[in-house]
Design goal:
Blueprint lengths: L3 E5 L2 E5 L15 E4 L3 E3 L1 H17 L2 E5 L3 E3 L2 H17 L3 E5 L3 H9 L5 E3 L12
Parallel strand pairs: 3-5, 4-6, 5-7, 7-8
Antiparallel strand pairs: 1-2
Helix pairs in contact: 1-2, 2-3
């Protein structure tokens, strides 16, 4: 980029062609929350899978709050979450699960799903005021 130099009453001023100037990219962060409620059976998991596929493509963090859901098959839930969790993880993003029952946590561990799983009784974060 070569400057153009102007000389005037205020002294020497350098100007640059704007076409070559690139503003530094600012980092944005998008967290989305998915909160299924009721029976999380096969059709419910299909709904979660469709929503999660969309959210994983455009979010930095997806939080799935399971506190209002009754999970009928921990194994099926782990399978449902595996691919989107891997997609988020490989891109340096995150899947966080809240309200995870012990049986679901065990299935997530068995399937090596790259997600952060917090139990329903997890203590609040320090400084959260709760």
């Amino acid at each position: 980029m070569s400057p153009a130099v102007s000389v005037g009453m205020l002294g020497q001023v350098e100007t640059y062609d704007n076409a070559e100037f690139r503003a530094p990219e600012t980092r944005r962060w998008l967290t989305t929350v998915l909160r299924p409620a009721g029976m999380l059976n096969r059709s419910g998991m299909d709904q979660v899978a469709r929503a999660l596929a969309i959210l994983a493509a455009c979010s930095d963090m997806v939080v799935i709050d399971l506190t209002a859901a009754t999970i009928t098959s921990p194994h099926a839930l782990a399978r449902t979450l595996a691919a989107p969790a891997a997609e988020l993880d490989q891109a340096g993003r995150c899947l966080l699960l809240r309200g995870v029952p012990p049986q679901v946590r065990a299935e997530l561990d068995r399937a090596a799903v790259p997600a952060i799983a917090l139990a329903d009784d997890a203590p609040p974060a320090p400084g959260s005021g709760h």
